[in-house]
Amino acid sequence: MGIELHKHDNNFDHLAKTHPCFSKGAHHKYGRIHLPVSPTCNIQCKFCKRGFNKSEVRPGVSSLLLSPDETVDILNKALDLCPDIRVVGIAGPGDTLATDFAIETFKLAKQNHPELINCLSTNGLRLYEKADRLKEAGVETLTVTVNAVDPEILKEIVSYVIDENGNKLMGVEGAKKLIDAQIKGIKKVSELGIVIKINSVLIPGINDHHIKEIARVTKELGASLLNIIPLIPQNELLHVQAPNCDLVEKVREEAGEYLEVFRHCKHCRADACGVPGRGEDIHSLLYDKEVVETFSHG
After folding, report:
1. Domains: count for the chain
2. I need a labelling partner for 181 at 20 to 30 A (CA). Which of 23, 126, 167, 189 fits?
C-alpha cells in the first residue's frame, strides 16, 4: 500500500520547504529555536528523565526556564545570531499544554515575527481542549508524541497520566485516557488546518511491532509525517537496549506504507537553537543566565 494524498498535502509541502524538522532539504538549510517555557508535565513516560543541565543532548532537558515575556528579547537575539532561523518551536522541557505559557509565547512571537513558523510539540493530553487557542495563537505545525494506540501496549510505556481533575491514572486506565485524548486532539487540529507530525519512540520488545499501526491510525486522523525516535535507555526503561540500525530501518519501512518518515531527527534539547543539519547550536550564546530548578509533574 502506497502513501495516499490527503487534503493537507499542499500546506505540508509549503511548510516543509522551510521547516528543518519536516524535510531533509530544510534540515540542512534553515534553523529553529526552541523556547523553554513549559515547566511541568501531566504524564510520566517510563523512558523520560527530565532535568536542567548544559551537557545532555536529548528532549526534556534545558539549562533554564523562560517566562513568555522573556522570549521576545531572546528571539530577537537568536535571529541576529542566526538569520537562517525560520521556526519558533516550543518543546518543553515539560509538556507544552500542561500550562498556558506556550500559547502566550506563540502570541508574542507572531506579533513580533509574523514571518516565522510557530511549531508546538505535545503529548496530546490537553490538545483537544486547547486546539482553537493554538490556532488563534498562530500555531502552524504541531508534533504529537504517540507511542501506542493500544492501551495494553501504552501501559508498558507510560507510568501514569494526570487528568483534568488532578487524579493520577495508572495502567490501562491512564493509557486509555491518553490515547482517547490524542485521537480527538489530532483530528481536531487537522480539521483546523494545522500540519501534524507524529513522534514515536521506538522501544524494542514493547512497541517495535506496533509503529506501523500508529502510522495507519494517525494518517487517518490527518497526520502528514512520522518521526521514529530510537529509545534512549534511561529511567524505568534503563534495562531496555536501544534499537539497532536494522530494527530502526525495518520499522521505518513498515510505517512508511502509511506516512512519510522523517529520518534526520537530532534528539534536540528543549532550549536548542540553530540549524540542526549543520550540527551547530548557538544556545550557549543566547543566555547570560542559567537557572537550574527542580522539574515537577502536575
Report:
1. 1
2. 23
Identify each DSSP E strand in 37-116 by its residue range: 40-41, 43-45, 51-52, 61-62, 85-90
| Dihedral sign from CA coordinates of 159, 162, 166, 172 | negative
CA–CA separation, 231 and 267 (whole Å): 10
CB 274 within 8 A of CB 280: yes
Nearest to 66 by CA among 34, 88, 44, 41: 34
Residues 6+ apart with CB under 8 A from 167: none
Beta-carbon contacts of 95 under 8 Å, excluding residues fewer than 6 positions away, are: 38, 40, 41, 42, 43, 122, 123, 125, 126
Provide, rounded to the nearest whole percent, the portion of the chain with pLDDT above 90. 63
pLDDT in tens, 235-267: 899 999 999 999 999 999 999 999 999 876 656
Scored b (16 or more CB within 10 A) or e, 172-184 reads ebbbbbbbebbbb
* CB-based contact 137:107 (threshold 8 Å): yes
Residue 154's domain is classified under what CATH number? Answer: 3.20.20.70
Q: Is residue 162 part of a domain?
A: yes
Helix (H, G, I), strand (E, B) or coil at 83: coil
Structural domain boundaries, residue 231:
9-297
Q: What is the dihedral of CA 129, 134, 137, 138, to 10 degrees?
A: -160
Per the domain annotation, does 2 fall within a domain?
no
> Does residue 119 sit within a domain?
yes
Whether 273 maps to a domain, the answer reads yes
Query: b or e along 140-149 (b: 16 or more beta carbons within 10 Å of the residue's beta carbon)?
Result: bbbbbbbbbb
User: Is the pLDDT assigned to residue 65 strictly greater than 50?
Assistant: yes
